[in-house]
Amino acid sequence: MVQKADEKPDYHREAAFDGTGYVIGVDEAGRGPWAGPVCAAAFWVHPRHITALPAALTDSKKLTARKRAAIETDLTSSHHLYQAAFRSAADIDEGGLLPATFAAMAEAVCDVADRLLSTDPLGWGRIAMILVDGNLLPPLPYPAEAIIKGDSRSLSIAAASIIAKETRDREMARLHAVHPYYGWDSNQGYGTKAHQAGIGSHGITPHHRRSFAPIKAYLDAAHKGEA
């Protein structure tokens, strides 16, 4: 079934397991930038507090920065459970972007799952399903389903997408304070003109992804210039 442009994420996938097991949504942010970590977040929607979820909750990419921040405040000060996890530029360079992303997803999911199973707030006793945004599944110790455009279709994935995006943006702002020449507080590490200008005048940092083609090209050119 094709989703209409004005449709919003709902709870029907999670509701299918209500009473039999917990469902956790997971999404990532920051796969495309030239610098900084990739971030994944996992989110469990408490079924007894769905009506308290922000009405504007949807895919983080459809929201303004101000709206995202307001929704994140509501999500993180509620009865729901969440966790974010990073994998660094060095991790990405060493093992590849997809494995690094999957590792961050698995860490975030397992943290939320461990807390759910240790406290068992609804007495359901097991993790029934992990809902993953996209068309690929990370290695997980629980049943999982990949959902294309899941952040526009599932409330738990939509919440995870906002946590991941906001958490990574804060990290890039922190890195900008240390390396202020690349505009990371506004471009989040993507290859904007300001970022390219910073690389041209100040070189690269430990937070640049050396395995990414533009950074690799810069390093190759710099190496040839030194030869």
Features:
227 residues; alpha/beta; Nucleotidyltransferase, domain 5; five-stranded mixed beta sheet; 8 helices; 43% helix; elongated
Fold topology:
Elements: H1 12-15, E1 22-29, E2 38-44, H2 65-76, E3 81-87, H3 89-95, H4 97-119, E4 127-133, E5 144-147, H5 155-178, H6 184-187, H7 193-202, H8 213-226
What do these coordinates show?
The protein has 227 residues and is of the alpha/beta class. The protein has a single domain, classed as Ribonuclease H-like superfamily/Ribonuclease H (Nucleotidyltransferase, domain 5, 2-Layer Sandwich). Helix content is 43%, strand content 15%. The protein has a five-stranded mixed sheet, sandwiched between helices. The longest helix is centred in the last third of the chain and has 24 residues, at 155-178. The termini are far apart.
In this structure, how is the largest beta sheet organized? Answer: 5 strands, mixed
> How would the global form be characterised?
elongated
Strand content: 5-15%
Major sheet: arrangement of strands? 3-2-1-4-5
Give me the Rg, rounded.
19 Å
Give the averaged pLDDT, no decimals. 94
Secondary structure class reads alpha/beta
Brief characterization of the structure:
This protein has 227 residues and is an alpha/beta fold.
